[in-house]
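Incident log, entry 3
Record: LmbE family N-acetylglucosaminyl deacetylase (243 residues)
Problem: checksum mismatch between cached and fresh output.
Input:
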Amino acid sequence: MTSALDDSEIRRALVVMAHPDDVDFGSAGTVAQWTDRGVEVVYLMVTDGDAGGFDDGITRAEMAELRRDEQRAAAKCVGVEDVRFLGYPDGRVEATLGLRRDIARVIRQVRPDRVLTSSAERDYRRIHPSHPDHRAVGSATLDAVYPDARNPYAFPELLADEGLEAWTVREVWASGGPLSDHYVDVTGTFTHKIAALKAHASQTARMGEELETMVRGWLAANASAAGLPEGRLAEAFQVIDTA
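Fresh output:
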């Protein structure tokens, strides 16, 4: 396993994901541990998830509002109060300069030591985490971390017009990619993760008890790959040194 900064060295973390519920499926158990240890965590959702759900009886604008509310409720399950949305169209995210600037802006506002995002790489063994929005957000976030947020001459308007000084993120954690080199034992925060996922009722309510069974199976497989004892549960990441 790769070496990550100890949580005691982390004051703030920023989570950048494409859709409401992405962080909860991939990383909510880990986030719950961070907040328990006093790390201030901020969520940034690039879209409002307006293309999700299964109810034809509500408009896409209503779905977006519902999913924003669900993400705020899910965040509270793991100790996160600050949830932000960029409002990009769900299903049409690209790693543009504009998106890089918007993410770099929030990095300079929050000034995190650690950023958690989705992997920019496609995993052919397990396709669902490799949604094109996920990969676009992962790519744009890495570019926003390096070089954009730390370079005072990148997007100079952020400094000139908004007074946002350059900021260097020390490490990035990527989830849902083909390479995992760091595992977090989340057995103790599994119930928080499930509570967060159930808060996304528009996406998960129809799964019933299958939701917990499915997620437990994923996390047990991660724990086995990490060499943890039988019965443990783990979330998997690739850690990138960006200091």
